[in-house]
Amino acid sequence: MSKLITRSVPAHALPLLDRFRTVRRQTESLAEPLSPEDQTIQSMPDASPTKWHLAHTTWFFETFLLKPQLPDYRPFDPAYEYLFNSYYEAIGPRHPRPQRGMITRPGVEEILAYRRHVTEAMAGLIESNRSNSTELIELGLHHEQQHQELILMDIKHALSLNPLFPTYAPERAPTTTGTTLGWIDFEGGLIEVGHAAGQDFAFDNEGPRHRSWIDPFALATRLVTCGEYQAFIDDGGYRRAEFWLSAGWDIVNQRGWQAPAYWHEDGVFTLAGLRPRRAEEPVCHVSFYEASAFAKWAGKRLPREEEWELASNDVMLDGNMLDSGHLHPTPANGEGLVQMIGDVWEWTASPYVAYPGYREPPGAIGEYNGKFMASQMVLRGGCAATPRDHIRATYRNFFPPDARWMFGGIRLAEDLR
Ligand SMILES: [Fe+2]
């Protein structure tokens, strides 16, 4: 029986209009520490400008709710349909992703006016009760919360390339000091995983709920720390092919990786700028390949996503997330299984594929998740940049195995037989 406990009233329990306005404001507040120049830069094709995130999340409501449902809705600017479509083929052509940083106009002020225009039109739609699309509005809000995390990931990458190592926000220092690593055994067996239809909101890729066979396994009580990862590096981890998947070894050599992203000599670049590394902090910004190599070096393995989900049934669904303000993983604290939620997205050994019985929703929204089900790996649990009321035990994040700019980290598992 699941024992998920929440500490405070989650935002999804607020009436829809309150929640809508709260999420919209949160996005804008994340952009506030940034100058218009900061908000315009695109540091690599995978990362988008802050300004683009502000506009694209707005485009989502305009495209999927306002235009289809309000016959007298006046688009803020018809050209935005092309500019701020991300990847929806069914909606039409779009500006190439790697060139999002070339859009100096519209400027930040105009994008904020676009946001106000759409927010007020959406508020009218919600208030009028004319919309029978509560689920679609919820999807738009969870979509926007995904982009809140992306704003932080992407600006961190951009600021990290500035030799002055600018600060996004001052550090809120952790109060926790770390714990020794323990193991918790799980018997496994025939279990049910995935999101059950009819419960609270979930993305389509989290269901349907289905049976899964799990052999006995053990899970590490906490995340792998920077100190433990340093031992892997000191033992020649990045120079010894025996720990690496073939594709990972190729990338280590092509890209000259010698440490996680954002590591410097003794320091680490964070959203609070460059500062000394702390041995007890969870290691972060590693790729799947690095997570896998570390696990092999340690004589362990990465958990499968069904194992992670089974273990999460017994933990509190809370942790160091966006709302805690650290914007960086913090050392472990407490007894038993900790850090399952928050701190870092945990790489699993599971490829991102459809669950048995999965069907994409009809229409353009069907492109949201389903079409990415190849060549990516699943990550679980949310991170220090994930909004608290955005995460669930069944949540399946996914990234290519060489990606490092999200807050990705490591929890070890092992077989028990
Ligand atoms: Fe999006």
In words, what does this structure look like?
The chain has ten helices and eleven strands. It is 31% helix and 11% strand. With 417 residues, it is α+β, with helices and mostly antiparallel strands. It is globular and about 65 Å long. The strands form four sheets. A four-stranded mixed β-sheet has the order 9-8-7-10. The N terminus is likely disordered. Fe (ii) ion (FE2) binds next to helix 6.
Report a brief summary of the structure.
This protein is of the alpha+beta class and 417 residues long. Helices cover 31% and strands 11% of the residues.
Number of strands: 11
- Provide the structure class: alpha+beta
Strand content: 5-15%
SSE order, one letter for each helix or strand: HHHHHHEEEEHHEEHHEEEEE
Quaternary arrangement of the chains shown?
Answer: single chain
> Hetero groups bound?
fe (ii) ion
Radius of gyration: 21 Å
* Sequence stretches where pLDDT stays below 50 over 5 or more residues: 1-8
Percent helix among the residues?
A: 25-40%
Mean pLDDT: 94
- N- to C-terminal distance: 25 Å
DSSP helix count? 10
- Largest sheet, if any? 4 strands, mixed
**Sheet with the most strands: spatial strand order:** 9-8-7-10
Task: Throw out a few tags for this protein.
417 residues, alpha+beta, four-stranded mixed sheet, three-stranded antiparallel sheet, 10 helices, globular, binds fe (ii) ion
SSE topology sketch:
Layout: H1 16-31, H2 36-40, H3 50-69, H4 80-83, H5 108-128, H6 134-160, E1 183-186, E2 189-193, E3 210-214, E4 217-220, H7 226-234, H8 246-255, E5 267-270, E6 273-276, H9 288-297, H10 305-312, E7 345-351, E8 377-380, E9 397-399, E10 408-409, E11 413-415
Parallel strand pairs: 7-10
Antiparallel strand pairs: 1-4, 2-3, 4-11, 5-6, 7-8, 8-9
Helix pairs in contact: 1-5, 1-6, 3-5, 3-6
The site of fe (ii) ion has 4 residues, from helix 6.
